[in-house]
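INSTRUCTION: Work out how this chain folds

Fields: amino acid sequence; protein backbone structure tokens

Chain under study, with its fold:
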Amino acid sequence: MCGRYVLYDMGEKFPVDHSLVQPKPRYNVAPTQEVPAIIREEGRNILVPLHWGLVPFWAKDKKIGSRIINAHMETLATKPAFRPAIKHRRCLIPANAFYEWKEEGGHKQPYYITPKPEAPFAFAGIWEVWDKEDPPYRSFALITTDAAPSIENIHNRMPVILKPEFFEAWLDPDSKNPMELLETGMVREMKYYPVSTRVNKAKDDDPGLIKPVGENR
């Protein structure tokens, strides 16, 4: 799964026609928090604030979102919480890296993980609108898959990171099979290094969290 990520620089590579949010540097994004995401509405790519943790439109309580931060690629077409969104509401989540934890010497060591070469990227996600409150609650889940060989020694799962040339097709609800886009458009070559266990605390959010500790890998 993916439970934390980093966004400190979006760069200029994302297909954004209009922005409703001004991104601020974040070094420890955690579930339920509101973060920038790119969605397609009325033919335009819009940068909007979405809450991390998918709340299906049919949910009785939005608290369910804290349990649906990730959507397994293998069940996108079958789970009721994911089926409508994968067809009609796909999104890009800008990021610079994500964290994952590995059991080492009796404790869990966090690692900072990012693609090679390092540059701003986008996770593939799905989003929903829950209209049982005003204004409606908008939320998303990151799509995850089996870990790439380059990081499978850290964890057996990873979020799907899309190649830039697949951004537009992913956002377009009329594009070809979304599962094919995921399978052919994901980035698999990653690099990583250990970071401070301060990442474990969601309230800690500063540049020091992404500095390597010990041997840089």
